[in-house]
Specification:
Membrane topology: Multi-pass membrane protein
Helix content: over 70%
Main location: membrane
Number of helices: 6
Protein name: GtrA family protein
Pfam families: GtrA_DPMS_TM (PF04138)
Subcellular location: Membrane
Radius of gyration: 16 Å
Shape: globular
């Protein structure tokens, strides 16, 4: 019974995490396209959009996903959750754009999906102690 309850809570948190991830991805992608329209290298535009959207993601995950109070300590630990996300998505962008010649505008959407499970596990560990 307790294990089923824990599973249900984790499932609901994961669903909320995916919703926040969709909002975060939309924010990231909108910023990325905006920055691309202004010029510059895709990797720099990707990095800038990533950092800005990560701040929003922190607050969404605190308030909506895990229903926990955001603190300064959590805010500074939260980027650790995105080390894997950033690494995997950046490597994916490189492979998709430079090696496979995919579109610079479609590739970020594809690359955003891969690190989702890893980010959920790490963010849960940091934000819910």
């Amino acid at each position: 019974m307790i294990s089923r309850l824990i599973h249900l809570i984790q499932t609901r948190a994961f669903i909320r995490f995916v919703i926040v991830g969709c909002i975060n991805t939309l924010t990231y992608y909108t910023l990325y396209v905006l920055f691309m329209s202004l010029g510059g290298l895709y990797i720099i535009n990707h990095s800038a959009a990533f950092v800005i959207s990560m701040v929003g993601s922190f607050y969404w995950n605190c308030y909506f996903t895990y229903r926990t109070k955001p603190t300064l300590a959590k805010f500074f630990q939260f980027p650790l959750t995105y080390v894997v996300n950033y690494s995997v998505s950046t490597l994916s962008l490189y492979v998709l754009i430079d090696l496979l010649q995919f579109s610079e505008f479609l590739s970020p959407l594809i690359a955003a999906i891969i690190p989702i499970p890893f980010t959920f596990i790490i963010s849960r560990f940091i934000l819910v102690k």
